[in-house]
């Protein structure tokens, strides 16, 4: 993509919390931004009230943000599409835009997760669905939608193999309250953003059981070791995992109750069944699907991810969370670091 290409207007697909917050951030910078959600009633509400009362109540849309109804027309005339739907709707969104997308229109997404069932990285899914002509990018990092919408200081990362696209996309968001970094390591950014959701469930379970700060710190640190193992096996840069989309997002979601993944874990740890905990949270919890898919990728790569494995056992096999903690503690003694072999 050339440095002069124009990304404006951006069409944001998915009027949930994160799509809306990202649309507001771009529009606040004066970039024309179109927001589309699939629900007609929701569209009418946003159109009339100039806010997204369902997900981000009380925060007015900037003037440069328009809510659009005719998605087909919008896809044909936008300069860039940003997808912000849950991972289970990602493929469906690509299929919807594909027939209408102009040949080289850049596509980015803020979805965190893997493709359902196959565990494919969304970058690979998007590349094979859309072909080679579209610049692609992933947005990820420690960023709760409500804080971005409220204009609180935030930093996140844009990853693309196309450096010009990464720079221009980052530029749409960059502001005195939003620092946006770029990277070429799309693999590392996606792995960090996916696995941290599973680990946030584990941290929530531990806190819900009443275990202390030591246990939480151990889960974060050993969870990071699991992310590193998977990332290394798939060919990501280790450095990425020490950045915003790795350790940054892991800390955020494991420690703050705004995280829906952590909320699910807390509810399970406090004694709700998994089904009741899902109902209780009542929001998008990406770590549920991700747990299964991450485990699939770990088995394919023949690496150990014991915390993710225990989360899967609790979520899908009816394990008692206390038994899972015991299983983790009773693993054979291990070295954290062994001396280099000369
Ligand atoms: N909320 C947050 O703070 C952040 C969320 N994310 C990620 O962004 C993605 C979206 O999350 P949220 O916006 O928070 O979820 P949300 O639950 O607030 O909203 C999801 C939206 O997607 C819509 N949707 C579902 N299927 C759709 C389809 N097939 N076509 C069009 N729209 C569809 C829903 O109607 C809903 O409006 C997730 O992968 C999440 O992990 C990433 C960073 C921050
Ligand atoms: O990814 C997020 C913040 O970076 C949002 O986390 P939750 O999906 O757990 O709420």
TrEMBL record:
<keyword id="KW-0963">Cytoplasm</keyword>
<dbReference type="GO" id="GO:0046474">
    <property type="term" value="P:glycerophospholipid biosynthetic process"/>
</dbReference>
<keyword id="KW-0547">Nucleotide-binding</keyword>
<feature type="binding site">
    <location>
        <position position="112"/>
    </location>
    <ligand>
        <name>NADPH</name>
    </ligand>
</feature>
<keyword id="KW-0443">Lipid metabolism</keyword>
<keyword id="KW-0560">Oxidoreductase</keyword>
<dbReference type="InterPro" id="IPR006168">
    <property type="entry name" value="G3P_DH_NAD-dep"/>
</dbReference>
<dbReference type="GO" id="GO:0005975">
    <property type="term" value="P:carbohydrate metabolic process"/>
</dbReference>
<dbReference type="GO" id="GO:0141152">
    <property type="term" value="F:glycerol-3-phosphate dehydrogenase (NAD+) activity"/>
</dbReference>
<feature type="binding site">
    <location>
        <position position="112"/>
    </location>
    <ligand>
        <name>substrate</name>
    </ligand>
</feature>
<comment type="function">
    <text>Catalyzes the reduction of the glycolytic intermediate dihydroxyacetone phosphate (DHAP) to sn-glycerol 3-phosphate (G3P), the key precursor for phospholipid synthesis.</text>
</comment>
<feature type="binding site">
    <location>
        <position position="260"/>
    </location>
    <ligand>
        <name>sn-glycerol 3-phosphate</name>
    </ligand>
</feature>
<dbReference type="GO" id="GO:0046167">
    <property type="term" value="P:glycerol-3-phosphate biosynthetic process"/>
</dbReference>
<dbReference type="InterPro" id="IPR036291">
    <property type="entry name" value="NAD(P)-bd_dom_sf"/>
</dbReference>
<feature type="domain" description="Glycerol-3-phosphate dehydrogenase NAD-dependent C-terminal">
    <location>
        <begin position="185"/>
        <end position="325"/>
    </location>
</feature>
<feature type="binding site">
    <location>
        <position position="38"/>
    </location>
    <ligand>
        <name>NADPH</name>
    </ligand>
</feature>
<keyword id="KW-0520">NAD</keyword>
<dbReference type="GO" id="GO:0051287">
    <property type="term" value="F:NAD binding"/>
</dbReference>
<feature type="binding site">
    <location>
        <position position="259"/>
    </location>
    <ligand>
        <name>sn-glycerol 3-phosphate</name>
    </ligand>
</feature>
<dbReference type="GO" id="GO:0141153">
    <property type="term" value="F:glycerol-3-phosphate dehydrogenase (NADP+) activity"/>
</dbReference>
<dbReference type="Pfam" id="PF07479">
    <property type="entry name" value="NAD_Gly3P_dh_C"/>
</dbReference>
<comment type="pathway">
    <text>Membrane lipid metabolism; glycerophospholipid metabolism.</text>
</comment>
<protein>
    <recommendedName>
        <fullName>Glycerol-3-phosphate dehydrogenase [NAD(P)+]</fullName>
        <ecNumber>1.1.1.94</ecNumber>
    </recommendedName>
</protein>
<keyword id="KW-0594">Phospholipid biosynthesis</keyword>
<feature type="binding site">
    <location>
        <position position="261"/>
    </location>
    <ligand>
        <name>sn-glycerol 3-phosphate</name>
    </ligand>
</feature>
<feature type="binding site">
    <location>
        <position position="260"/>
    </location>
    <ligand>
        <name>NAD(+)</name>
    </ligand>
</feature>
<feature type="binding site">
    <location>
        <position position="143"/>
    </location>
    <ligand>
        <name>sn-glycerol 3-phosphate</name>
    </ligand>
</feature>
<feature type="binding site">
    <location>
        <position position="196"/>
    </location>
    <ligand>
        <name>sn-glycerol 3-phosphate</name>
    </ligand>
</feature>
<comment type="similarity">
    <text>Belongs to the NAD-dependent glycerol-3-phosphate dehydrogenase family.</text>
</comment>
<dbReference type="InterPro" id="IPR008927">
    <property type="entry name" value="6-PGluconate_DH-like_C_sf"/>
</dbReference>
<keyword id="KW-0444">Lipid biosynthesis</keyword>
<feature type="binding site">
    <location>
        <position position="249"/>
    </location>
    <ligand>
        <name>sn-glycerol 3-phosphate</name>
    </ligand>
</feature>
<feature type="binding site">
    <location>
        <position position="55"/>
    </location>
    <ligand>
        <name>NADPH</name>
    </ligand>
</feature>
<dbReference type="GO" id="GO:0005829">
    <property type="term" value="C:cytosol"/>
</dbReference>
<feature type="binding site">
    <location>
        <position position="145"/>
    </location>
    <ligand>
        <name>NADPH</name>
    </ligand>
</feature>
<dbReference type="Pfam" id="PF01210">
    <property type="entry name" value="NAD_Gly3P_dh_N"/>
</dbReference>
<dbReference type="GO" id="GO:0046168">
    <property type="term" value="P:glycerol-3-phosphate catabolic process"/>
</dbReference>
<feature type="binding site">
    <location>
        <begin position="14"/>
        <end position="19"/>
    </location>
    <ligand>
        <name>NAD(+)</name>
    </ligand>
</feature>
<feature type="binding site">
    <location>
        <position position="141"/>
    </location>
    <ligand>
        <name>sn-glycerol 3-phosphate</name>
    </ligand>
</feature>
<feature type="binding site">
    <location>
        <position position="286"/>
    </location>
    <ligand>
        <name>NADPH</name>
    </ligand>
</feature>
<feature type="binding site">
    <location>
        <begin position="260"/>
        <end position="261"/>
    </location>
    <ligand>
        <name>substrate</name>
    </ligand>
</feature>
<feature type="binding site">
    <location>
        <position position="260"/>
    </location>
    <ligand>
        <name>NADPH</name>
    </ligand>
</feature>
């Amino acid at each position: 993509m050339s440095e002069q290409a124009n990304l404006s207007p951006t069409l944001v697909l998915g009027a949930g919390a994160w799509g809306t917050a990202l649309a507001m951030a771009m529009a606040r910078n004066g970039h024309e931004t179109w927001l589309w959600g699939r629900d007609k009633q929701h569209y009418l509400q946003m159109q009339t009230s100039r806010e997204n009362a369902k997900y981000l109540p009380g925060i007015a849309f900037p003037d440069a943000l328009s809510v659009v109804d005719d998605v087909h027309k919008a896809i044909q005339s936008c300069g860039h599409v940003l997808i912000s739907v849950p991972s289970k709707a990602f493929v469906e969104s690509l299929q919807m835009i594909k027939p209408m997308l102009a040949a080289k229109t850049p596509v980015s997404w803020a979805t965190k997760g893997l493709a359902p069932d196959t565990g494919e990285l969304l970058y690979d899914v998007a590349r094979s669905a859309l072909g080679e002509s579209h610049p692609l990018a992933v947005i990820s990092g420690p960023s709760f939608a409500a804080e971005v919408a409220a204009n609180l200081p935030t930093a996140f990362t844009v990853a693309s193999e196309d450096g010009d696209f990464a720079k221009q996309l980052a530029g749409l968001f960059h502001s005195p309250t939003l620092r946006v970094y770029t990277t070429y390591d799309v693999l590392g950014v996606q792995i960090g953003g996916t696995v941290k959701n599973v680990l946030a469930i584990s941290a929530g379970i531990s806190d819900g059981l009443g275990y202390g700060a030591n246990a939480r710190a151990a889960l974060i640190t050993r969870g990071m070791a699991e992310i590193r193992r998977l990332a290394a096996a798939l060919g990501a840069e280790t450095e990425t995992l020490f950045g915003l989309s790795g350790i940054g997002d892991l800390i955020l979601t494991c420690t703050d109750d705004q995280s829906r993944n952590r909320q699910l874990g807390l509810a399970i740890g406090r004694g709700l069944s998994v089904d009741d905990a899902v109902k209780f949270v009542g929001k998008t919890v990406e770590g549920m699907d991700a747990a299964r898919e991450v485990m699939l990728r770990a088995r394919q790569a023949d690496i150990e991810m014991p915390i993710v494995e225990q989360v899967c056992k609790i979520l899908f096999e009816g394990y008692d969370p206390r038994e899972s903690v015991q299983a983790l503690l009773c693993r054979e003694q291990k070295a954290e670091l062994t001396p280099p072999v000369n």
